[in-house]
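Bug #77: duplicate submission created two jobs. Keeping one. Sequence:
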Amino acid sequence: MNTDRIVVNMGPHHPSTHGVFRAALTLDGETIVGLKPVVGYLHRNHDKIGERNTFLQNMPYTDRLDYFNSMSNNLGYAITVEKLMNIPVAERAEYIRVIMAELSRVQNHLVFIGMLLNDLGAMYTPALYAFEERELILDIFEAVSGARMMCNYLRFGGVVRDIPPYVMQKIKDLVTDRLPAKTDEMERLLSENEVFVSRLKGVRVVDAETAIKYSVTGPVLRAAGVPYDLRRADPYSIYDRFDFDVAVRQNGDMMDNYLIRLDEIRQSLRILEQAVKQIPDGPINSQKPAYQVRVPAGEAYGRIESPKGELAFYVVSNGKPNPWRYHVRPASFVNITCLEQMCIGTKIADFVALLGMLDIVMGELDR
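Kept job's structure:
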């Protein structure tokens, strides 16, 4: 039956968009035939303000990018500036950084799974199961940094505070007992649920060729069959010391995008188990505490595998206290460019879940 095409605006204020994001969808009946992502509602001039701040002042500023993963943001920025400063990182601090980064990945993927159920209509209960585990990880962040989300924990050459012994014991208990059991429980409750599987299985997100064409990174790329993970492809910090696999799935549908998050949680727990066993005693920073750091003239590009994909910083110094150029390459912004390709030809009922697959956070997308 012939129908008129209509344009439907989803957002910028819509629960499914996870923030102030607008998608202008062109529909032919219930089929999506065009999509225009509209971004910028949360633009804060992050890059330019980063050139006004001193190098050290930018550390808490990076917390506000992907506000679910401030520890990872700190790590990407610290690695970049340390390249410019040409300074070593204290051995114990390297392990602490990996522990915090992988705990961030676990809680990020837990929230992804919980909110995916919300997007599919199973409101609140599954999300609360996921948030219960996330809260335990945020307790760790609060104990070491003083803040649950805006942690501002890393410093050039190390971290700002050591992990107290009782917190280290909590991390060990979480990593070896509670989180593996809860991950298994979540998979048991969801992965064979008939309604859940019927909504996800066979609904294409993106194929490998298209994902590479649009520079998509992170779990979405790996769920399409491309085993690209910076922790293996371009190792940073001390990731080359740990035994873990790059999680990869082959179908690129929504089911694989959900399952790969569970795979990655299990691989992060493998890394964490090794890190808490191997962590040495010693200082937590190779540098003396200072309000100001000297960064020689030059430029550096640093990148990490954040929970959402490749997060990179480009910093240029002219020897003054603040960066001459400060630029962020956030995973959310690059991945959203693929959204139209993902959605064309699918039904409007699947749009909310497809958008959820990209796991965007507007704090880093709009900057």
